[in-house]
Design a protein that fits this description.
Blueprint (H helix, E strand, L loop, with lengths): L2 H16 L2 H17 L1 H16 L4 H7 L8 H27 L4 E6 L6 E4 L5 E4 L4 E7 L2 E14 L8 E4 L3 E5 L3 E6 L4 E7 L1 E6 L7 E4 L2 E6 L2 E2 L3 E2 L11 E8 H9 L6 E3 L2 H5 L1 E7 L3 H11 L2 E5 L5 E5 L3
């Protein structure tokens, strides 16, 4: 919702609490008419009211610390009261801005090789992290934010119309209110897949067009540009059930997921091998089986070294 609408509602609420009876009544009537004018105004009012209550209604306390006029003519008294109210509103605004800038919840999460993890957030949302995933969660009074540094995470987001849930990646931003979706970033393209609800994806590239996804869709973002929505995997985040599932993706990207479960990494010996496209399902608990099967399903050769590392090279001429 527009920030200026929330600020207007906050101003009217403050006037209701910070002036004399007549001015408070006028602000109350103005606020009621403004709320009826548009559905967006009603939403902004509820957000402003929530913020006002969160700081405990500062107006009475601030009145106690602002100076009162000693002696003045009637016109001077009116001007002093008006100045008091303006000073009160300014102080409330500054305190609100400072309060909103403080995180209510902040946590950094990281999983190691072959390690997955789950976490319930304070708002009731749930996160699941795949192996070798790093992200940071920050909640403010008016927003919920996640920065995915690398890896793959599944989000089951609790609905909150006043606080959108945002996931930032190298390739763009994902915004939701309440839904379940997966974001994957293993260093190449970023994939966003939706299990439930709707997701808005804003790629980071210049003049990139935003994309809206519904349940059962995914989009791949590369070089800051989003492709066309396409069907997502039938099972969201299959690694939660112990599977690595690849659906016609370049071997270079598949190896990034495989390496999340191997302490000794697999590398590419040439670009031709990395461009081969892999489709199949493999058990996470046996990553070596994936390497054994690769030469059977793709024109590649796997060469293992004594230290456990391996290199994949093309068999094409």
């Amino acid at each position: 919702m527009p920030a200026d609408a929330v600020e207007r509602a906050l101003t009217l609420i403050a006037r209701m609490h910070g002036g004399d009876g007549a001015r408070a009544g006028q602000a109350r009537d103005e606020l009621a008419a403004w709320r009826r004018a548009a559905p967006e105004n009603e939403m902004a009012f509820h957000e402003a009211d929530r913020r006002w209550k969160a700081i405990g209604g500062l107006a009475p306390d601030l009145r106690g610390v602002l100076p009162e006029p000693r002696k003045a003519r009637r016109t001077g008294q009116v001007a002093s009261k008006a100045g008091l109210v303006l000073g009160l509103l300014l102080a409330i605004g500054l305190l609100l801005r400072g309060y909103l800038a403080l995180p209510l919840y902040e946590r950094e999460l990281m999983t190691a090789v072959a390690q997955t993890a789950g976490l319930e957030l304070p708002d009731g949302s749930r996160l699941s992290l795949d192996a070798r995933t790093r992200l940071q969660v920050v909640f403010f009074l008016g927003s919920r934010s996640v920065r995915l540094g690398s890896g793959e995470a599944y989000f089951d987001v609790a609905a909150d119309a006043a606080r959108p849930f945002i996931v930032d990646t190298r390739q763009g931003r994902v915004s939701v209110l309440g839904t379940a979706f997966t974001v994957r970033d293993r260093g190449g393209a970023v994939t966003v897949s939706v299990k439930r609800g709707r997701v808005a994806v804003a790629p980071s590239g210049a003049a990139a067009k935003p994309v809206e996804l519904t349940a059962g869709q995914r989009v791949i973002i590369a070089d800051g540009q989003a492709g066309e929505p396409e069907p997502a995997l039938a099972q969201a985040a299959p690694w939660r059930s112990g599977w690595l599932v690849f659906d016609d993706i370049p071997l270079a990207e598949a190896l990034q997921s495989i390496n999340a479960y191997r302490r000794a990494p697999v590398s590419l010996a040439d670009a031709r091998a990395g461009a081969e496209r892999l489709t199949g399902s493999f058990r996470i608990r046996d990553p070596e089986a994936v390497l054994d099967l690769l030469p059977k399903v793709l024109p590649v050769e796997v060469r293992r070294a004594g230290d456990g590392t391996a290199a994949v090279m093309s068999r094409r001429p």
